[in-house]
Design a protein that fits this description.
Elements: E1 2-6, H1 13-24, E2 28-33, H2 40-46, E3 53-55, H3 64-71, E4 78-80, E5 85-90, E6 93-98, H4 104-109, E7 115-117, E8 125-129, E9 132-136, E10 149-154, E11 159-164, H5 174-182
Parallel strand pairs: 1-2, 2-3, 3-4, 6-7, 7-9
Antiparallel strand pairs: 1-10, 5-6, 8-9, 10-11
Length: about 200
């Protein structure tokens, strides 16, 4: 089975709509979202997906109770878990989902999982620890890197391909970078944002 992996939408409705349109062109049967809706409005877009979406929480999810309430509406194709991580089994593959990169390597090293998917740092990454695939699909929001991306995972091969979205929009502009410099904000300055 093919599964799409998305993360870090960060309120970018334009990019998530484009991402879903691209995913619909494939034979993907499920979508896993690794957190960071930011606003509840994004959940309204996700619940209308024609492909079931399973989401875990990130650290930027705004009104979690409203997101959850939206996901429980009749006809919703969005399911939201209870935490920033979860374990799923599909086609005899045991998969660990997490928002945070700090635990991804440790979980992968345990040898208990076929794949570990994570987000949070917005940086695309495709690695292996032993037989375990360790994957960050990058960010849908293109907020940090300026590049919107997602991944398609194949349970048969236990491998994935990261796909960059064409016609994406970003707030990572020269003007925004200048403003971040003015307020002395640096990405990766926080322990939880360091690349693994």
């Amino acid at each position: 089975m093919k599964i799409a992996i998305i993360s870090d939408i960060h309120d970018n409705a334009h990019n998530i709509v484009l991402t879903l349109k691209e995913i619909y062109k494939t034979d993907v049967k499920q979508i896993y979202f690794l957190g960071d809706f930011v606003g509840a409005g994004i959940s309204r877009i996700l619940l209308t997906s024609t492909i079931p979406i399973y989401a875990i929480w990130g650290n930027n999810d705004g009104d979690r109770s409203l997101i959850t309430r939206f996901s429980l509406e009749e006809g919703s194709n969005l399911t939201v878990g209870f935490d920033t991580y979860d374990v799923v089994e599909i086609d005899k593959r045991k998969i660990f989902l997490t928002h945070y990169p700090l635990i991804a390597n440790t979980i992968a090293k345990s040898g208990e999982f076929d794949a570990v998917f994570y987000g949070h740092d917005h940086l695309k990454s495709h690695n292996r620890i032993g037989d375990c695939l360790v994957l960050n699909p990058g960010e849908v929001g293109a907020y940090k890197t300026g590049i919107a991306s997602y991944a398609i995972y194949d349970t048969k091969t236990n491998d994935a391909k990261i796909i960059e979205l064409k016609n994406a929009i970003t707030t990572n502009t020269p003007e925004a970078k200048k403003k971040f410099k003015e307020i002395q904000f640096e990405w990766n300055s926080l322990k939880s944002h360091k690349k693994i």
